[in-house]
Write a structure and sequence with these properties.
The chain is α/β, with parallel strands linked by helices and 309 residues long. The chain has 9 helices and 13 strands. A hairpin with a 2-residue loop joins β12 and β13. The radius of gyration is 19 Å and the shape is globular. The protein binds nicotinamide-adenine-dinucleotide and (2S)-2-hydroxybutanedioic acid. It is an enzyme of class 1 (oxidoreductase).
């Protein structure tokens, strides 16, 4: 019995997280996952090879302080991603103060197209979590260019927006915030789902929405970038895949008829598990929510056309 137990244990799949992009967000996500998850392997790819190697070395030292000794490698060669359960993509440019996320679209689409091809050459079985902005457009580009099934490619945007919404509601004295989701574009057309909000004494939401929509720019103006909030949001999604939690959360996912829309990636409620997007949850959204979602889809499709999709 003991031998069988050991044998079974040795067959337990190793949890490996790959990263393409070892910059502020990628490295902070890796640092977060190192602390929160029992990951056996982390691989960080970046065009700045020394950055990726340096981050891997620093992360390995941090792990030792936690009594953890995962294999952590960095470099510019995509072959180190082989066997990743999930690849987290933050490769690309970040916006500067005064820019919108959409201003990054043309440049980052070219990067994501190349990254998609290289991920499929090195780790074709991985789920892909896209973070690079504008994330809804980059998730679509990743899906199209990788050729993967739509459940295996998804983006993190509204998860972060929803965390910001919860904080803003808390500061306004809202209690028992069971569900407070931002849906739609991870951008200026994002909206608070009034259909799905579940909390006590919810205030008028117009001002709250404006705060959430533009708070990232305020952070960027002061510290140059956002990465702690994004890292926790990304960790929540990575954890759902690696531990098959089947947690329901807002995610940028490829629609094929859901909510009446197709051929676009946009933030909607989804169940995330070992298969990636396990299910898109088609709640009967009220007319205002549907109008807002339609507005996001229209904007995103116009920008996809500009990118040649
Ligand atoms: N979806 C979200 O909620 C969210 C949150 C925060 C940041 N972001 C986005 O994530 C991206 C990264 O942000 P950051 O602050 O980490 O930027 P950063 O500049 O610190 O890191 C980006 C990294 O990508 C690397 N890179 C560039 N082109 C590459 C390529 N072709 N292959 C591999 N690596 C490449 C760069 O060398 C750099 O290290 C930006 O687009 C930013 O807007 C999205
Ligand atoms: O706003 C940005 O440019 C980064 C990210 O999308 C965020 O919302 O923090």
């Amino acid at each position: 019995m003991y031998f069988n137990f050991v044998k079974e244990q040795s067959e337990v799949a190793k949890m490996k997280i790959g990263f393409v992009g070892a910059g502020r967000v990628g490295s902070t996500i890796a640092f977060t996952c190192l602390q929160q998850l029992d990951v056996e392997e982390i691989a960080l790819v970046d065009i700045m090879e020394n950055l990726a190697i340096g981050e891997a070395m620093d992360l390995a030292h941090a792990a030792a302080g936690l009594g953890k000794y995962p294999e952590i490698v960095g470099g510019s060669d995509y072959s180190i991603l082989e066997g990743s359960d999930i690849v987290v993509v933050t490769a690309g440019s970040a916006r500067k103060p005064g820019m919108s996320r959409l201003d990054l679209a043309m440049k980052n689409a070219g990067i994501i197209k190349d990254v998609a091809r290289k991920i499929m050459e090195s780790s074709p079985e991985s789920k892909i979590l896209v973070i690079t902005n504008p994330v809804d457009l980059m998730t679509y580009v990743m899906w199209k260019e990788s050729g993967k099934s739509r459940n295996e490619v998804f983006g993190m945007g509204n998860m972060l927006d929803s965390m910001r919404l919860k904080r803003t509601l808390h500061e306004l004295g809202v209690k028992n915030i069971n569900k407070a989701w931002i849906l739609g574009e991870h951008g200026d057309s994002m909206f608070i789902s009034r259909t799905l909000i579940d909390a006590e004494n919810v205030p008028e939401l117009e001002k709250v929405l404006s705060e959430v929509r533009f708070v990232a720019a305020e952070v960027i103006k002061r510290k140059g970038a956002t990465f702690y909030g994004p890292a926790i949001a990304a960790y929540r999604m990575i954890n759902a895949v690696l531990n098959n939690t089947k947690e329901e959360m807002p995610a940028s996912v490829i629609l094929k008829g859901e909510f009446g829309f197709s051929d676009v990636s946009v933030g909607v409620p989804a169940i995330i598990g070992k298969n990636g997007v396990e299910k898109i949850v088609e709640y009967p959204l009220d007319p205002q929510d549907m109008e807002n979602l339609r507005n996001s889809v229209k904007l995103l499709k116009e920008r996809l056309k500009e990118l040649g999709y």
